[in-house]
Design brief:
By secondary structure, the chain is α/β, with parallel strands linked by helices. The chain has 7 helices and 6 strands, in the order βαβααββααβαβα. The chain has a domain of 146 residues: 3-Layer(aba) Sandwich (Rossmann fold), CATH 3.40.50. A 6-stranded parallel beta sheet has the order 3-2-1-4-5-6, with helices on both faces. The radius of gyration is 17 Å and the shape is globular.
Amino acid sequence: MTGEKSRDSGQNRVVVGISGASGAAYGIRLLDALAELGAESHLVISKAGEMAIGYETGLSPKAVAAKAGRVYAAGDVGAAIASGSFRTAGMVIAPCSVRSWSEIASGVTSSLLTRAADVTLKERRKLILLVRETPLHAGHLRTLGQLADMGAIVMPPVPAFYAMPETVSDIVDQTVGHVLDLLGYDWPNARRWGEDRGKGTKRAKATKQP
């Protein structure tokens, strides 16, 4: 699948959530990538997520919101993405904080971000959580296991060093490319083992497989 999915079926709509964990760059880059693919992005940023954007990037929350096709306030629980009748290809929370994933696991949601995630699960759509916390105690692990049992894709943004990243942007792009793979999109910036960037050819200098 490329960025040419039918808008009528909702298959070219992706909900993006940015919560208050460290790693706002992942959500921001995902918005850029979806725009490059011609996908329709629907964004919700938690209050803590807005703070993280300010701390970690040179962008304002307003500038990040401008990258999305549609933006919703975190308190707007009556928004379109809070309803299962609003069809989407899925939702990505990048990054996903402990509070956010705990609310989703319990089904007791306090914001549009976690409500939209709960809706994604109940409608059996893809929910990808870029969980950002380490180390993890037993309570965290039990909750993440529960989310996996419920159908969520728990995806810590772990760098793939076989891609030989040279910059922080390279590391972010590798994770965003993997997210887009899970959603079915073919993003040219994705790097894959044994292939050149987005070209399906062998790298000039093969690395040793770990």
